[in-house]
Amino acid sequence: MADIIYKLEENTYMNITNKCPCRCTFCIRSQGNAVGDAENLWFYGNEPSIDEIKAAIDAYDFSDVKTVVFCGYGEPTERLDVLLETTAYLRKVKPDLHIRLNTNGLSDLINSRPTAKEIGEAFDTVSISLNEPDSDKYDEITRNIYPKKAYPALLEFTRECSKYCKNVRMSVVDVIGEENIKKSELIAKSLGAEFICRSFEKGR
Which tens digits make up the pLDDT trace of 18-71? Predict the structure, then answer.
């Protein structure tokens, strides 16, 4: 079984799936089998059940953990029910945790229904990967399975999520160039989200 919980720099991460509708050209999982203190983040065969995830949480020392981030080697909203149940369990066993979701923002397409409300209400912070400032560039860099549909969907998800979560942010990776970074910042702010430019070298 792959690592379900791992630490990278100051945060603790939850890895619950390897499924993702994107194959981003810069994706860190193409660089190796793990990051941080994890030994392996690939689930070969079955992905962890909710009981296995809860067992991993029970066995983990959260005494010095302030923030937990759902962001493993896959898109967490691919397992939306498990994601929400795990978040609820974390709040039960460790009420003072700040819980963040790192997502590609395509949950509505993945789950074939609106999901921003239940996601926004479940997390303290929702961080959405904008990646590029227009649809064609987004499709090119993410190589997603929803061409022409993905970009408008993530913008709508962000707009809706901002209604239910106090801390919504959109991010890009610093490999897209200064001009595109500035355009992306304007888009994020227009949707009511904070803007973050992430370092490719640091990985998160």
Answer: 999 999 988 888 778 889 989 999 998 899 999 999 999 999 999 999 999 999
Which of 17, 127, 4, 128 is closest to 82 using CA atoms? 17
Work out the burial of residue 177: count CB atoms within 10 Å of its CB; fewer than 13 is exposed, 13-18 middle, 19 or more buried.
Answer: exposed
The helix/strand/coil state of 76 is helix
Residue 37 backbone dihedrals phi, psi, to 5 degrees? -95, 5
The single-letter code of the amino acid at 103 is T
Q: State the DSSP H helix or E strand holding residue 49, giving kind and residue range, or none if neither.
A: none
Token pair 């929803």 in the structure block, residue: 146
Element (H or E) spanning 12, and its range?
Answer: strand 11-14
User: What's the pTM?
Assistant: 0.93
3-state secondary structure of 57: helix
**DSSP-derived secondary structure letter, 37:** T
The stretches of 94-132 forming alpha helices (DSSP H) are 107-111, 116-122
Pair of tokens at residue 179: 């001009």
CA distance 195 to 170: 5
